[in-house]
TrEMBL record:
GO terms for molecular function: preQ1 synthase activity. It comes from Terrilactibacillus tamarindi. The lineage of its organism: Bacteria, Bacillati, Bacillota, Bacilli, Bacillales. This is NADPH-dependent 7-cyano-7-deazaguanine reductase. Substrate binds at V77, E78, S79, H96, E97. Keywords: Cytoplasm, NADP, Oxidoreductase, Queuosine biosynthesis.
Length: 164
């Protein structure tokens, strides 16, 4: 049996026809697999234009496009599990900033990446949009400095906001 097929045996969601969608925050749905290209650093980027959560005060829905980028080390996140995990925020009440930090924490715990960033671009509510950006660089590596530099220069050139 090849190394690739052995690691695929560990994935329970990919190709599963009986997918269960959790309506409550559920980090246990996240699955990882072995990075087959540890000989080089590279970015993996996910764009999730249908993120929803609830305001913890009013219970009104909040909508965002999420951008999750990371440089893997040994493990990578399986995309279907990530989709189900992000879907689990649908009825979760938390502030935008807390949701982005929670996502970053859960992905760091799952993968222990070299670098990770999570950026939520929320649609305006009450005339204000909120775009929290969270990043992480593995301590003691060059990626720790990359994280600091990217955070320090994150919004140096803000994009044109066009009511999304």
């Amino acid at each position: 049996m090849s190394e690739r097929s052995e690691q695929n045996d560990e994935l329970t969601l990919l190709g599963n026809k009986k997918t269960v969608y959790s309506f409550d925050y559920d980090p246990s749905v996240l699955e990882s697999f072995q990075n087959m290209n540890t000989h080089r650093d590279y970015f993996v980027k996910f764009n999730f234009p249908e993120f929803t959560s609830l305001c913890p005060i009013t219970s009104q829905p909040d909508f965002a496009t999420l951008y999750i980028s990371y440089v893997p080390d040994e493990k990578m996140v399986e995309s279907k599990s990530l989709k189900l995990y992000l879907f689990s925020f649908r009825n979760h009440g938390d502030f935008h900033e807390d949701c982005m930090n929670k996502i970053a924490d859960d992905l760091i715990k799952l993968m222990d990446p070299k670098y990770l960033e999570v950026w939520g671009k929320f649609t305006p509510r009450g005339g204000i949009s909120i775009d929290p950006y969270v990043n992480y660089g593995k301590p003691g590596t060059k990626w720790e400095k990359v994280a600091f530099d990217r955070l320090a220069n994150h919004d140096l050139y803000p994009e044109k906001i066009d009511n999304r």
